[in-house]
Every structure is written in C-alpha cells, then in structure tokens.
C-alpha cells in the first residue's frame, strides 16, 4: 500500500461511483491523478513535499480572503487524535488507526466563519471535491489529519493532508458521508462560497463587472464531475468579450487556471486555442438553472468554464470543462 499510489487512487475513485461518475470519467480522473502525482514526485522528494505543502482556508470567513497554512503551522494549532478505520486502506479495511490532526471546526472558527455559512467544501490537489455540512463539522471530530499511527501520512496513502471521519465512534457518519468524502491530498477548505474573482492579464473582474458584459445562455449536458446528468441551463459571458473588456489579445494560446494544483500545472496547462475563442462560444459561467442560481463551491463555483456544442471541432478530445476558474493567461 505505501508504495502503490495506483492501488490507492483506484480505490478512492471507485468509491466515488455513487456520485455519478461514468467508467470513462473514472479512468480519466485516475490517469490525471497518477500523471500529476508523478510530476510532483519527480521534482520533489517526500520531505520537500511536506515542507512546501499548504492548506488554503478560503470563502466566507472574517479574517481575510485566503489564509495559507504550512504543515508546520497546522501542527502548532490545537490538535486531537481520532481512532477509526480507514476505508481507503485496501490491505486492512477493518483495522483501526490513530489519526492526529486539527478538528475542522476548530480550524475554521479561528478565522471566523460567516453566520450564514451552511457547508464547507474540501478540494484536493487534483481538483476532486467533497462538501460537508458546517453543522456536522461543529458536532463531530472530523479532522484534517497529518499523522497516522504517529507517522506522517505518505503521499501514497493520501497525504500529507487527509480529511478523516471518525466512523468507529460515530457510525452514523458512514451512512451520511461515505468513502468518497475522505479527501486525500487536501489543499483547500472553503467555507460557503467565496466572492467571484477572476484575473485576466492586469485586469481583475468580479461578479458585478462580468454582469456588465453581454450575457449568454446555453442548455447543455455539462462536462463537470459531480453535476446531475442531463442538460442544464448555463448563464455567463463569452471569453472573447472578457478579453475585449480586459484589453488583451492572444496570437497563440489561452491558458485557464483553476483552484487545484493540477489545474495550475505549468507542465500540463489547460490550453484553449485562440481559434476556439474566436470561432465558438467559450464561456465563463456565473449562474445555472432556470432561476439563474449562483454556482456554489460544492458545484465548483463561483466561476466555471463551459463550451457550446460547436466548440467540439476545435478540440481533438473533449473540451476541458473546468470548475473553480480563477485566472486566465494570454500568450
């Protein structure tokens, strides 16, 4: 197990089947996780990874927009131990382990969660996400773990940060939060949904400034993981209109960056051909559904990337539908 990332990743993804992933999506997610992890492992040894790893606390908090915590800083906070089984351990699924870490509620209370927050979304370095009720995080000792059996959690076991649920002491949690909620490679904890913020060149857009641009609505079966199957109304703006407002031009490539490390990977960027930006509706989506609801963090919001059907001709494979869009680089 400790030297078999493939086994661990496959198990973790297979336990997500209940969320609606197809076999093709599972295969793609697995391959992307393996590839991204290989890049990190190639460039950094485990000690370096642990030193550089950060947990970002974001969203509707009082402290500031983003709080960045290193592993050392997390360990300096008040910690607790939880003894429970680990559903992703393929060798000893029924065994119990002692996890040490920071209770999520303690961590977020430190930075002041807004009164109207009802849920917290956890994001992994590969973009995987899971959302947990804020009330349950306050009620139960659900932790961001950095040790298992008094040793750092290896990358091959989902470390260095791992979201752990105390199944043994609170078996009701296993019914509500199944295996797929145990987020490994944890990088973000998002209280509620943060304000929309998009950097394009030197221009920063928010929800109000994007709303001033020409609005577009399409109805498509989305390419985001975790959304309901079938066609959904999507509302937003064309990428080319955003470029015009930002007064930027691109002769070759547009790079879209999301929240996760994988989606900011310079070795495998998410590229959009300029021909697609000019020739079809590449969209930044700010709302969904007939009631034009804002996109919450649990769905990858507040800003996502979408494509009209005629964009398919510009991509050898499927267009890169992306959640948590934060920055656009123009080259």
Write the layout of secondary structure elements.
Layout: H1 5-14, H2 23-43, H3 46-52, E1 54-59, E2 66-70, H4 71-76, E3 80-85, E4 96-103, H5 104-109, E5 119-124, E6 129-133, H6 134-139, E7 143-148, E8 151-152, E9 162-164, H7 172-176, E10 186-191, E11 198-200, E12 203-205, H8 207-211, E13 215-221, E14 231-238, H9 239-246, E15 253-257, E16 270-273, H10 274-279, E17 282-288, E18 293-294, E19 304-307, E20 327-330
Parallel strand pairs: 1-10, 11-20
Antiparallel strand pairs: 1-2, 3-4, 4-7, 5-6, 5-10, 7-8, 7-9, 11-12, 13-14, 14-17, 15-16, 15-20, 17-18, 17-19
Helix residue percentage: 10-25%
CATH class category label of the largest domain:
Alpha Beta
Individual helix count? 10
Average pLDDT, all residues: 86
Shape: elongated
CATH architecture of the largest domain: Alpha-Beta Complex
How would you characterize this protein structure?
- There is one protein chain.
- The chain is of the alpha+beta class.
- The protein folds into 2 domains: 187 residues, Sulfite Oxidase, Chain A, domain 2 (Alpha-Beta Complex), CATH 3.90.420.10; 133 residues, Oxidoreductase, molybdopterin-binding domain (Sulfite Oxidase, Chain A, domain 2, Alpha-Beta Complex).
- It contains 10 helices and 20 strands.
- The chain has a 5-stranded mixed sheet. Strands 3, 4, 7, 8 and 9 form a 5-stranded antiparallel sheet that branches. The chain has a 5-stranded mixed sheet with strand order 12-11-20-15-16.
- Strand 1 and strand 2 form a beta hairpin.
- The protein starts with a helix and ends with a strand.
- 37% of the residues are buried.
- The N terminus is likely disordered.
